[in-house]
Every structure is written in C-alpha cells, then in structure tokens.
Amino acid sequence: MNFDSVLGIETQDSADTSPILVVPYVWIGDFVRGHTVVRVLKKRWPNRPVDLLVTRQCAPLVDYMPGVRAGIVSDLPRSRLALARQWALAAELKARNYATALVLPRTWKAAIAPVLAGIPERVGFFGEARFGMINAMRWGERQLPRFIDKNAVLALPAGAARPAEWPVPQLRVPTEEIGRWRQANGLGSGPAIALGPGSVGESKRWTYYPEAARLFAERGFDVWVVGGPAEKAAAQQIVATGGPRVRDLTGTDLRNGILAMAAASVGISNDSGLMHIAAAIGTPTMGIFGPTDPYLWAPLNGLASTVLQTKSKLPCQPCQRTVCTMNDHRCMRDIAAEEVVDIAERVLAQISVR
User: Does 305 lie in the same domain as 196?
Assistant: First the structure.
C-alpha cells in the first residue's frame, strides 16, 4: 500500500474548523495504530484540528504524527476513578472547545472527562452502559474482525462501509534528528540491527535474542537493544552474549526507542509497540509471532518479514494468551536464531538493490 494513500473515504466539509478530540487506547502499539483514525478524520475534514489524549509515556509519539495538532497529557490511574483529576482534565478540554470526541475504548471511565467538559458530540461503541455519556452510540463492534477496524470505523459516518484498505499509521522522524541522536550516543553512521526483546505478555517474547545478537555481531553488524526499563535485564544478557558490537539502548524515554528504530537498517521485534513504531516509520521491520495472529495484530504498514514457527502447526496456536500454558512455549522456542539472522540478511540484501 502507498504510505500516503487515503482511498475510499470522502471529504465532507472543508469549511468546518471545529476541533476534534480522540481518546485512544494508550498501550504503545495501540496508540500508534490510532494514527489511522487521525488520517481518516483529516480526510473527512481537512481543516478540523485533531488532538489526542495521551499518557506521558506515549507523548513523544505525537511529535512525529502528521495531522495531530496537540497531545493532551493526562496520566489518569487505571485502578480508580480519580474524579478530582477527571475534573481538572475536563476543564482543560472545555477550554479547547472541542465539538466532537471519539472515545475509542469501550469503558465508562474513558468517557468521563469528555462528558464533564460538555463536548457536544461523543462518539463511541456501546459498552459498560454508557448511555448518555456516549450520545452518538455505535453498535456491532464484536462483528468487526480486527482491532484497527473497531477503532477506525468510529471516524466514519454511522453505517458507512469500511474502505477496502485503511490508511496506514505514519511516524515522520526528521533525518537531522536521527543524525544528532546517533552522534550523541556515539553510534557512528554504519548499518545497525535494532532488537526489541520486550512485549506486554511473557508468551510473546522470543527466546533467542542473545544468540541472534552474537550471530549479527560475528557477521559484522552493529546491534542495538531497544526497550524500556522492563527490558533492562534482557538487554544486559543480550550484550553479555553478543559482545562489544552490541549496545544497550533501553531507557525510560520512548523518544530514544523511536529514534533507534528510525536509525536502524532493520528492526526485529516481538509483537509489541516497538514493532508498530518501526513499521510506521518505514524501517524494514521483522515481526516475530507465536501466540498471536499476524492477521489481527501485525501493523497495517506491512512487515519486511513475518517470522512464524513453521516446523509443525501447533494445535494451541494462536492462543492469544499472555502466558504459555501448554506445549512449553514451542511456538516461539522453535524459531531458531540462525533463521531470524538469515532472514534479516535477505531483507538487507533486498534493500540494497532497490
């Protein structure tokens, strides 16, 4: 698909300039995929500003999303309503005079601030008895096959047919910023492989990143391990196995991960937020899948390679579970490090002849 194409969606009113708020899912990968919603809205109303509610963790992504005017940072706690903070958020939203709010999560809690802010049109799917809170209610979410369908259809008119293809998420990272980042981290200008060993859910984590890092280093590649604080221990193990050409670039700032994936020649990741970041940037991306279904969860952008266990079809696969409860994690353990490294070299060879 053409990275910039938006097909099958009609422009409705170029004169409308009333702002729109999108309340997205805030896991990193889901937040990146939410950029498709922005692109649909901007196609329908080119001159309506679109803002996103965002957590501090995801906030750096907004800087690279075309069509987003601003990110409204709000780290509301997951375990309680926090009404005082909801009122404070609502006051900020009210001051921005939104005419429409798209509430992507089906939860009651996600709709509180838009209601308190008095946003006139509040669009969302039925869920948790949100009658009155969502006043432009949509139905039939469970009949939609993929997560992206459930989100992006809310940006269309009620009852409208889905386009043959949704516009893909985009992250545009300036070349000069990538260069400054590499220089600041002493990373030189040569080709590098970025590894994303983390994921939400233990079962989605491929076992052999340390061995793959060692093989890449032996074949002359620099290797960067990318992730958050939860990946620090894995990164240290990968560096210890891979040797001096392997760098631990994990940290607390997601911007670091964005720039690493933008600078890399190839990104290799589990089914995780970093996979979606790399694909949205346009970096050739290899996604390693075991318990999850690539049809449902792979990036719309497409992958340079979808890596799956092919020795034998496991009866439990895809289980969609966060922890393996049968077959001893074979869906991931049966993907060998040599296989992933060989695929990556083929991907690099294809890039070099373009």
Answer: yes
Cα 115 from Cα 83, distance rounded (Å): 12
Separation CA 344–CA 193 (nearest Å): 9
Residue 336 lies in a domain: yes
CA dist 216 and 228 (Å) reads 22
50-54, strands of its sheet edge to edge? 70-73, 50-54, 20-23, 100-103, 121-125, 136-138
| 71 and 115 housed in the same domain | yes
Say if 323 falls within a structural domain. yes
* pTM across the whole model: 0.94
Say if residue 181 is in the same domain as residue 151.
Answer: no
Token digits of residue 311: 């020795």
| Claim to verify: residue 236 and residue 146 sit in the same structural domain | no
Give CA separation, 176 vs 63, 179, 193, 255, 260, in Å. 15, 5, 20, 15, 13
User: How does pLDDT run across 15-33, given as a tens digit for each residue?
Assistant: 999 999 999 999 999 999 9
The domain boundary residue, chosen from 99, 122, 155: 155
pLDDT along the chain (354 residues), means of 10: 66 92 96 97 97 97 98 86 91 98 94 97 91 93 91 95 94 97 93 95 92 97 96 96 97 97 97 97 95 89 88 74 76 91 94 68
Domain boundary residue, one of 121, 155, 189: 155
How big is the CA angle at 269 (ends 224 and 143), to the nearest 5 degrees? 155
Distance CA 44, CA 261 (A): 31
Residues 189 and 77 in one domain: no
Segment (H or E) for 285:
strand 285-288
Q: Which of 311, 303, 308, 274 is nearest to 291 (CA)?
A: 308
Domain range for 198 is 177-352
Sign for the CA dihedral angle at 128, 62, 271, 350 comes to positive
Q: Is 14 inside a domain boundary?
A: no
Q: What are phi and psi of 71, to 5 degrees?
A: -105, 130
Q: Which two tokens stand for residue 11?
A: 């422009």
Does 8 map to a domain? no
CA distances from 217 to 29, 72, 226, 254, 341 (A): 28, 42, 16, 25, 11
Count: domains in the chain: 2
